[in-house]
Design a protein that fits this description.
Number of strands: 44
Structural class: alpha+beta
Strand order of the largest sheet: 25-24-23-22-28-27-26
Distance between the termini: 113 Å
Helix content: 25-40%
Largest sheet: 7 strands, antiparallel
């Protein structure tokens, strides 16, 4: 029974405490005045009566009613029903002025004079019961009595109200009907009656229709969001302008959370004065009037639900975990069926007549039914995860979260995890955990309807029926009595509401009278007999156990039965000591143990081999069992939700091995390295489940003792009694026991718990103290030793890299370690004991005893372990595979001998066997450090591939990142220290040191590695130290043979230094640099001492005719350098012409830099315009960064345009050069002298161009057009707009359209959205201007003629060219482009390496290979470089010169310039040419190889930046697109890519020629070599290797004359280079050829012995990533050449070089001459010659297509649509042009044959063509001949037979070369060049005949 109302108060407006218009309320009267003992009076009610503040209003407002909820300190909720009405007030100031006892007449006057105001007054009921309607009626009645002036005294009404006592819950028994009825009907004595509907079961919330209202206001999804947010403890704020709606919404939200109860701040109506509550850090559900909306805007983490607007706003920083699928979907479906039944039939043709949703009240219960059903699904089986740890005196119950999640297989589910961790669920467990209590609807649902729910969940209609049944129960619970007609409540009459304003104020009641009422009622209660409402308690049913609930997403693995069989067999073999069998099964077992079923099976099997808690094994058995245990534990998460660790815990203390006198090692010492043991939650769950078992046993015994029951273990009904059932029974009997019995039971339980605590303290010390106590990592790494909070957030990854890193830095004192370990373990166990003992009620004395015991237990255990540790060191080591020695290069020496390591698989999955193929990794072997490489060599752990050898290596110089990791080996017990080493040759080694390797040794290894990776000086690198014994020699003191070179280099250095010294003296002549570029000067000086060469005195700059004799010889050396050879080839002047200054050449070779004083990073000889004297050069160079002024590096032989390179301008230079504020059009005259000289320099270059000198005037229009017409063929006209478009693309202006490529010749133009935009093709800045509009969208002829083409384009950096103004009549144009700076390349490369060689495999879709590749932007950078290069090629080809002047002129500039030459000049696509290109542009022009490659200690910080690799990748892309244009193969590029970072050769060391001379490296290649086997230059090495093997040669090489290549450059056309991806584990990288030879020899020597066996199979399995494909499956030509060599060797002939053989083959199949009109024809591949003008890429692989029928689908169709074919080349528009019927085409076989003429005529050589298509054999005079001399129809041929030499036959030809062709008419006698050729001819003719 309970009071209906605790307090009644009247709250009014407080006139005395008005503060600036802010009113306050005060309590005018309160009944009862004394607080009730059971419910104190809540404070602050007056705030809640007017939540938006107390205010006076000018006109009366209607009465209002709402219920606010206050929570007191005991978290009891008080419901405050506020009824507010407005009373007239005379003007308050007036009232204060006059005396208060003024009589009525004055009042009248005041009313007339002054506007009346109204003040609010509230009647408030405070109750602990929530009956909104009843309260509304009662307060309404009191108000009615007052307004209508009823006769009833107000005191009586209030007195009756305060003395109403009603039952809390219903559930009427038949006898008590009447009495109950009377109890539930109340009257306040004013002629009113109300029936109060008390719920039948008060544990179910009463919701009226609030839930349905909430869904109507917000919608299904929004409410679900709020529901999940409330359960996962987020902050929720409701807004509405109605107070009652706020209360209802909050009440509705709580109702759907049932059976969970909300336990945080809950304020349905928050007064405005308390708004700061909203910034509390704890979760809450609060309602606020929308009046205060603006003040809620800045709340960052609050979810705001606007009830009036129907929106829910979730801030960005808040993540709400939603219900797990498929539950979410099902819930939504059923809710929409409840709320919107018409949805389902909205599409029906004949919808049923009425499908109205149920009435609101019913709908409300249906929605709640849905949520009940939802919770039943979420929590099904929860009772099976309750651990009961005490039954008496009070049940103590804990929930085993991990097991629940594991068995529901929802461990990954965020929502459920959060709910189970939340406060609401904790309350749920403590409330519903006890096994003996009253049960309600939810208990019934979750116990008895699980099966039904599971079967119906997929069918919404059945679910709906179930929901309706639940709704009915809920409705009946709230409305137990049919609506009674006795409801009679007075309302104020209409007229009184609108009565005159004159209304008496609300009377003050007589407190004595009211108090009498209350006292009287209280006395009556005392005498009345107590109402005993028997609470029906019972055993709570548990429902079906979780195991029976087959989880939908149960991970049933394929063929799991087979796997379990394997596990069982393996264990049986181990215990039967059949170790070989077990060893074979082991890998399969370890794989199987990834699945849960197999792990459970393992624990069960092992259990069977334990006798009396002990199983003694021998060493090998022990080893295998431990490995299996480790593997099982390895995949356990830290909370062990599958219970595997729990099942293994008893086993690890059972299995052991004897180790000597009285010393036993248990398995636990070998399985400690798993996170689960360091997790407090795991130990608690384990402890509680054990305690539960013991307590169950305790009561089972007592029962048996009492009943002498024959049924064992209470198995009366055939199943075990669960602990909860036992507990329920015991709780039922508890009241019936005597006091002694009760205390005895309590003591027994307590001591059970205590003994378990001791047992667990032991167990924990077993698993936490490491075998070697000096090395404990588990507790320290997790930080558990120090963390004082036992939280959920321990590190969850199995001991991973991050931890190991923190490990070594963590403790500074290594010696204090052992005690430190003990302390941290003791602390951990103490915290555990404190927690569990407090929860399970262990007495204080016992707890103290435990605390004193724990340190002793730990200490004792440490002593035992020490003995075990000592013994374990003496054990004979397990047989490990013997270490294999790697083969070394000549001159390569071991720095450290092999250390045993394990090679762990990384993110590349090929080697692990996951993608098919054998699991080659992990492998065990050794790591060797030599002075050149880092080599791992070993054998795979998997015994099935154990005999293979795995090798992984990379040059030490290519190491880019090294980090420590720690690795848990799957086969091993221990976590190993390891290293992860990444190399820029795209290799990654993850190694774990074996336990036999001491950690200090690993440290030594790292130090050595660092020393080798970053030597002090370049001379410390392998290329220099090779061949010198052991010591790293830096000073060469030996007498050098090449003395003159040495002196030269000394002189050079001296003169350079002299110049530097002088430059500071003469500095004063120059104005100091302006401020803005002072900093840049400064940095240049730091970077390169001789970067600013000022005026140098003339003596050191004499003309080359006066070169001193010692330098003469050097000049000849310089002349031999690559640059000069190339300059001579290009006709850019010879040295002699520069000495005699012959004026007819436009360019000369200048020796101004021969002492490297003008520019330290340029070569000694440079090409400059003839007209520019050296002195000018010295002045000009200062405008450019690093003094790298423009020099010519290539000239187009056709258009005579030149390509120049330089660095970007200094800021000063740019400004002076382009900004001419008020200069006349002729050019900037006011600019300073250098600028003028610079201009002169550019003008000199322009005037060197023939197109310029021919033009009549300076750029007059007519002159321009005439030269334009004269110098370029008609194709130029078409090319113009393409350049424009290309430029626009390169410059990346905003409005460009990413075009598609169309192709004319070998050129891809950019077509913007289907029309050629008419850009001015000449100028950069004008280029980017808008298109000139054309009605048809195409360029008009006239436009081209008008256009003015610049003679010189300067490709410059956008960032530097800001503010440069253009001059209309200058003949040069600046094209600003954005270049990728070096940092971008560096970062991109890092990401590329991570994409191609990931360090660990991941299933994250954001980390997939393609995603990572895209993020690296490597392809985009290639695209940018290629695009600029193609633009430059195009400009040069149209006859404009180009100057590339980007950054410092040694990175991007070098890339672009080299690519341009490669694309434009076929010579650079040969071996010699490419070498020359690299030597000239990269080495001589000073690309900083050492700096960019971080090759020495000094450049370590700058990091590795692969600019040259990027260039090689670009070449590779071009090679892919034009495979027939390059003499070298892709392998050649890979070889260079590998060795440019390997430091094996000296070629790519140092930063410039100057540095090379200084070290004496530059010319030594010419000198004699000390050791012939050590090559110092990569080029010599390639030459030598190329003589031996065709590996660098590209068989498809058949270049076209003067072919300019224009590759596609879009990202989609670029491919990832396989150099980044491939790996050969059988032999390591294939780029050191000496190793290959040795390995093969070694391999050949061994197998000969074992040849006696049966026949050997010819088949060979080729594994991905293991075998070298080129070796295992060589291409056809290589294979034939190899076979030829081996045959010659067998016959004892001296084998000729492969190149000669190949050339012979080619000439045999081609004519003697190559200069024909047709493009050359590579008949070795039998390609159709018509591929010549197409892109000859894909067709070449179709080797079977002998007729040349390879169809090449380039983008020809597009090309034909947009551009007319360029003159002079066959059209590409017809796709099948191969089959044109011109006789010249269809040649199946052709060659020279001697044919015997008619009678008496001599034998003559003729060119014969066999044509399959026309079925004829034609012959011509020569190969070029178009006219056919004669035809032999093959249809007439009868036979073809070998012939004999006849009279007059050619001499010296072997007999077998003759053959005869017999036709029906006559016999033809033929003679081929040799027998082979004759045979080929006979076969070809024969095959033609047989085909016919």
């Amino acid at each position: 029974m309970a009071r209906l109302a605790d307090y009644y108060l009247v709250v009014g407006y407080d006139l005395d405490k008005r503060v600036e218009g802010e009113g306050q309320g005060r309590i005018l009267q309160r009944f009862p005045e004394k607080d009730w003992e059971d419910s104190p009076f809540p404070q602050g009610v007056e705030l809640f009566c007017q939540p938006s503040g107390w205010q006076l209003v000018p006109e009366r407002q209607p009465a209002s009613f709402f219920v606010a909820v206050l929570t007191d300190i005991n978290s009891e909720r008080h419901y405050c029903a506020c009824f507010t009405f407005w009373e007239g007030l005379d003007n308050p100031q007036l009232q204060k002025a006059e005396a208060s006892e003024a009589d009525e007449a004055d009042d009248e006057l005041a009313v007339v004079q002054l506007a009346q105001v109204f003040a609010p007054k509230s009647l408030v009921l405070v109750s602990r019961l929530d009956y909104t309607e009843v309260f509304r009626n009662c307060l309404g009645l009191i108000y009615t009595v007052h307004v209508d002036g009823l006769t009833v005294p107000m005191e009586t009404v209030v007195g009756n109200l305060l003395t109403c006592i009603i039952p809390i819950a219903g559930g009427s028994q038949p006898g008590q009907e009447e009495k109950e009825e009377s109890l539930r009907t109340i009257t306040l004595g004013a002629g009113d009656r109300q029936v109060i509907q008390t719920p039948i079961d008060d544990s179910l919330p009463v919701s009226g229709s609030t839930v349905a209202q909430l869904f109507r206001q917000l919608g299904i999804i929004n409410v679900l969001y709020l529901f999940c947010a409330a359960l996962t403890e987020h902050k929720i704020l409701f807004l509405s302008s109605s107070y009652q709606r706020l209360t209802d919404a909050c009440r509705g939200l709580l109702a759907i959370m049932f059976p969970l109860k909300y336990s945080f701040t809950y304020v349905p109506i928050l007064p405005g004065k308390l708004l700061e509550v909203l910034s509390t850090p704890t979760p809450f559900i609060i309602g606020v009037n929308s009046f205060f909306r603006s003040e809620t805007q800045e709340l960052l983490d609050v979810i705001i639900a606007d009830l009036d607007g129907g929106t829910v706003t979730i801030p960005e920083c808040v993540h709400i975990s939603l219900l797990p699928e498929p539950l979410l979907q099902q819930t939504q479906t059923v809710l929409s069926m409840v709320l919107d039944p018409e949805l389902e039939i909205a599409d029906h043709a004949f919808p049923p007549l009425s499908t109205q949703p149920s009435a609101l009240k019913i709908q409300d219960k249906e929605i709640r039914g849905v949520f009940l059903w939802l919770f039943a699904q979420l929590f099904q089986g929860y009772r099976w995860c309750l651990h009961i740890i005490r039954i008496h005196p009070e049940p103590v119950i804990r929930f085993h979260k991990a097991a629940f999640l594991g068995q529901r297989s929802l461990t990954e589910d965020d929502f459920l995890m959060k709910v189970l961790d939340g406060m609401a669920f904790a309350g749920f467990v403590s409330e519903r955990g006890p096994p003996y209590r009253a049960t309600d609807l939810f208990d019934d649902l979750v116990a008895n309807h699980v099966e039904r729910i599971r079967q119906e969940e997929t069918c919404p209609h059945k679910v709906m029926n179930h929901v309706k049944e639940l709704a009915e129960l809920l409705f009946r619970n709230e409305n137990p009595y049919p609506a009674v007609a006795m409801h009679k409540v007075q309302r104020p009459s209409e007229n009184s509401q609108n009565a005159a304003q004159k209304q008496s104020p609300f009377p003050s009641l007589d407190d004595v009278v009211v108090q009498l009422f209350i006292d009287h009622a209280a006395a009556k209660l005392k005498t009345a007999p107590p109402v005993v409402k028997a609470e029906v308690k019972g055993m709570v049913p548990s429902g079906p156990p979780l195991g029976d609930i087959v989880d939908r997403n149960g991970h049933v693995m394929a063929n799991s039965a087979r796997r379990l069989e394997v596990v069982r067999n393996c264990i049986t073999y181990i215990f039967e000591n059949k170790m070989l069998e077990a060893k074979k099964l082991m890998p399969a077992v370890l794989r199987a143990l990834k699945g849960r079923a197999a792990r459970v099976c393992l624990t069960q099997e092992l259990n069977q081999h334990v006798l009396q808690n002990r199983a003694v094994l021998d060493d090998q058995q022990f080893d295998y069992i431990v490995r299996m245990m480790n593997c099982t534990l390895q995949d356990c998460s830290h909370i062990d939700e599958q219970g595997i660790a729990a099942a293994l815990l008893p086993l690890v203390t059972a299995f052991c091995r004897k180790m000597g006198a009285g010393i036993t090692q248990f398995a636990y010492s070998c399985v400690q390295e798993h996170m689960v043991w360091a997790t407090m939650q795991f130990w608690e769950a384990m402890f509680y489940s054990d305690v539960q078992n013991h307590i169950r046993a305790l009561y089972l015994e007592t029962d048996e003792g009492e009943q002498q029951n024959n049924h064992q273990d209470g198995l009366s009904d055939g199943r075990k009694i669960s602990a909860l059932e036992l507990a329920s029974e015991q709780s039922r009997l508890w009241p019936t026991l005597s006091k002694e019995m009760q205390t005895e039971r309590v003591q027994k339980e307590e001591s059970t718990v205590f003994s378990q605590a001791i047992h667990y303290a032991n167990r924990m010390s077993y698993l936490l103290l490491p075998l070697d106590t000096s090395k404990n990592r588990l507790l320290r790494t997790t930080g558990l030793g120090d963390v004082e909070s036992v939280s959920n957030s321990y590190v969850t990854n199995s001991i991973a890299g991050s931890m190991a890193e923190s490990y070594d830095t963590e403790s500074g004192f290594e010696d204090a370690e052992s005690s430190d370990v003990a302390n941290s373990v003791v602390r951990f166990i103490n915290r555990f004991v404190d927690k569990v003992c407090n929860e399970s009620g262990v007495t204080n004395e016992h707890l103290k005893a435990l605390h004193t015991m724990i340190p002793d237990i730990v200490q004792m255990h440490i002593e035992t372990l020490d003995a075990v540790h000592r013994e374990s060191k003496r054990l004979p080591p397990i047989q490990k595979p013997k270490l294999l020695r790697p083969t070394l290069l000549p001159g390569e020496e071991l720095v450290m001998d092999g250390m045993r390591v394990h090679l762990i698989p990384d993110g590349r999955e090929e080697a692990t066997g996951l993608m098919g193929g054998p699991p080659l990794l992990p492998a065990e072997g050794a790591i060797f450090l030599t002075n050149y490489r880092l080599i791992f060599k070993g054998t795979p752990n998997d015994p099935l591939v154990g005999e293979q050898v795995v090798t992984r290596s990379f040059p030490i110089a290519s190491l880019t990142k090294e980090k420590r990791i720690s690795v848990t080996l799957p086969m091993d017990q221990f976590v190993q220290e390891g290293l992860q080493l990444r190399s820029c040759t795209f290799q990654l080694m993850k190694i774990a040191f074996d336990e036999e390797v001491a950690s200090d040794l690993a440290e030594v290894f790292r130090k050595h590695m660092h020393k080798l990776r970053y030597p002090q000086h370049v001379q410390g690198t392998f290329a220099f130290t090779v061949g010198q014994c052991g010591k790293m020699v830096v000073e060469h003191k030996t007498k050098d043979k090449n003395q003159s070179l040495k002196t030269l280099s000394k002189n050079l250095v001296k003169s350079a230094k002299r110049t530097i010294g002088r430059q500071y003296v003469t500095r004063k002549k120059y104005s100091p640099p302006t401020w803005e570029n002072r900093s840049s000067f400064q940095s240049e000086m730091d970077e390169d001492e001789i970067s600013i060469s000022e005026e140098v005195d003339q003596s050191s700059l004499t003309l080359s005719s006066t070169i001193r004799s010692s330098d003469r010889q050097t000049m000849s050396n310089v002349v031999e350098r690559a640059c000069c050879r190339d300059y001579q080839r290009l006709g850019l002047g010879t040295l002699s012409s520069s000495l005699t200054r012959s004026k007819n050449e436009p360019f000369r070779i200048s020796t101004v830099n021969r002492m490297y004083t003008v520019c330290r990073s340029y070569p000694g000889l440079l090409i400059v315009p003839q007209s520019i004297p050296d002195t000018t050069i010295q002045r000009i160079c200062r405008c450019y960064r690093q003094n790298r002024f423009p020099v010519v590096c290539w000239r187009n032989p056709r258009t005579k345009a030149v390509l120049l390179r330089s660095a970007g301008l200094h800021a000063k230079g740019v400004v002076g050069f382009f900004k001419s504020p008020n200069a006349p059009a002729s050019g900037p005259s006011q600019a300073d002298s250098t600028s003028l000289e610079q201009e002169k320099y550019l003008q000199a270059i322009i005037s060197s161009m023939p197109s310029y000198s021919e033009s009549s005037g300076r750029n007059t229009l007519s002159g321009f057009t005439s030269t334009h017409m004269s110098t370029s063929d008609s194709s130029d006209k078409l090319r113009q707009p393409k350049i424009g478009a290309l430029m626009k693309q390169v410059m990346g202006t905003k409005e460009d359209v990413p075009g598609t490529f169309s192709r004319g010749g070998k050129w891809g133009s950019i077509r913007g959205s289907g029309r050629l935009s008419a850009y001015n093709p000449d100028v950069g800045t004008r280029l980017a201007a808008k298109e000139s509009a054309q009605p048809n969208g195409g360029p008009s002829e006239a436009l081209f003629l008008r256009q003015q083409k610049a003679y010189l384009y300067i490709i410059g950096d956008k960032a530097q060219l800001k503010g440069g103004k253009q001059d209309t009549f200058q003949q040069w144009e600046v094209v600003p482009i954005e270049v990728c700076d070096v940092r971008q390349v560096k970062n991109s490369f890092k990401k590329l390496m991570k994409a191609c060689v990931p360090s660990s495999s991941t299933s994250d879709p954001n980390m997939s290979f393609l995603r990572c590749l895209e993020e690296s932007e490597w392809i985009a950078l290639l695209h940018r470089v290629l695009q600029v290069s193609v633009l430059v090629v195009e400009l040069l080809d149209t006859g404009s010169s180009v100057m590339v002047s980007l950054e410092d002129g040694w990175d991007v500039t070098t890339q672009v310039v080299s690519l341009v030459q490669l694309l434009s000049d076929p010579y650079y696509r040969t071996f010699d040419g490419f070498r020359l290109l690299v030597e000239k542009e990269w080495l001589s022009f000073g690309h900083r190889f050492s700096h960019r490659g971080a090759q020495t200690l000094g450049s370590q910080s700058s990091g590795f930046t692969p600019v040259f690799l990027q260039f090689l990748d670009c070449v590779h892309q071009i090679h892919l697109q034009f495979p027939m244009e390059f003499e070298f193969s892709q392998y050649y590029l890979k070889f260079l890519a590998y060795h440019y970072v390997s430091n094996r050769f000296r070629t790519f060391l140092l930063d410039s020629d100057y540095e090379r001379i200084e070290l004496g490296v530059l010319y030594e290649e010419k000198g004699e070599r000390k050791s012939p086997q050590v090559c110092k230059s990569v080029w010599d090495y390639i030459d030598r290797l190329n003589k031996k093997t065709p590996v660098f040669y590209n068989y498809m090489f058949s270049p076209e004359d003067e072919e300019v290549l224009r590759p596609y450059t879009f990202n989609s056309n670029l491919k990832v280079w396989d150099f980044y991806m491939e790996e050969t584990l059988s032999e390591g990288p294939s780029y050191d050829w000496e190793l290959r030879g040795r390995q093969e020899r070694a391999a050949e020597e061994t197998p000969d012995k074992a040849d006696s066996g049966g026949p050997k199979s010819q088949r060979h399995v080729v594994w991905p990533c293991y075998d070298s494909l080129s070796k295992a499956v060589p291409d056809a030509i290589t294979k034939l050449l190899q076979d030829l060599q081996s045959l010659e060797a067998e016959l004892g002939q001296t084998s000729e070089k492969w190149k000669d053989t190949w050339d012979k083959m080619k000439t045999a199949q081609r004519s003697e001459t190559k200069l024909e009109s047709k493009p050359s024809f590579s008949s070795s591949l039998l390609m159709s010659s018509n591929l010549s003008h197409q892109r000859r890429s894909q067709g070449v692989y179709l080797q079977e297509s002998a007729g040349g029928s390879s169809i090449n689908l380039a983008l020809d169709c597009e090309a034909s649509a947009t551009s007319t074919p360029v003159a002079g080349r066959p059209s590409t528009s017809t796709l099948y042009s191969q089959f044109q019927s011109t006789e010249s085409e269809n040649r199946s076989f052709e060659g020279i044959l001697f044919k015997k003429g008619a009678l008496l005529k001599p034998w003559k050589p003729r060119w014969f063509v066999l044509d399959k298509t026309k079925h004829q054999l034609r012959y011509y005079e020569t190969r070029q001949d178009k006219e056919c001399k004669g035809v032999i129809e093959l249809a007439d041929v009868e036979s073809v037979i070998p012939g004999t030499p006849a009279m007059g036959a050619p001499k010296n030809i072997e007999e077998k070369a003759f053959f005869d062709l017999k036709t029906t008419k006559r016999v033809y006698n033929f003679c081929a060049q040799d027998s082979l050729n004759a045979q080929l001819w006979m076969d070809s003719v024969q095959s033609c005949l047989s085909d016919a």
